[in-house]
Input
Amino acid sequence: MAPGRQKPRTCVGCREEAPKRALIRLVRAPDGSVVLDVRGKLPGRGAYLCLCTECLKKARKTGALARALRTEITPSVYEELLAHIQAFASEKTPEKAAQEVCNLLGLARRAGMVRIGMDGVQSQCAVGSMLVLTAKDCSASVMRFVRNVLEREEKAPQHQHLSLPFSIERLSMALGTGRVQLVGLPLKGGLAQKIKLLLDEGGDAFEKQDTRL
Output
């Protein structure tokens, strides 16, 4: 891993990688109890889970969380996890959600999980399903790329596109690089799912597009 990059973590539900901040951490404490580690700093054996009910259901059904922590998970722990996920989904204002998306994209770039620009996105679209994000003021040529170039990839997996609720300038600042109009990241990972959830929370305040490319 390159210097300065943060190691991503793996969700025990979907088995996809995401930046640590995009996931929930659970810890088996020294006394054997399982607790939710909101700050991500508690000592003990840890496991990570995406902030979505689908991954929680899968982790419970398969016993993946219990195996990762090497202990039995009581129903109360799963109930606490579900409540935490639901609370996360209900407490975000559009601006807070937008800022959280910026923060996550910055973390993901440092972890090497984001593809920037048309060349970077196109090179990865044939490899796996991608979530393509465009700044709200991106150019007409970028939108033509989104609508036409990707959909001409006959053998490409399914991709999704979302228009971000902020400008090129803000996206570029979040990524810490030059002028950025679009980025891509693995669609099936916990990071993509959390970003989609955050954008959904913006409601009508976000000009959102979700189309098959």
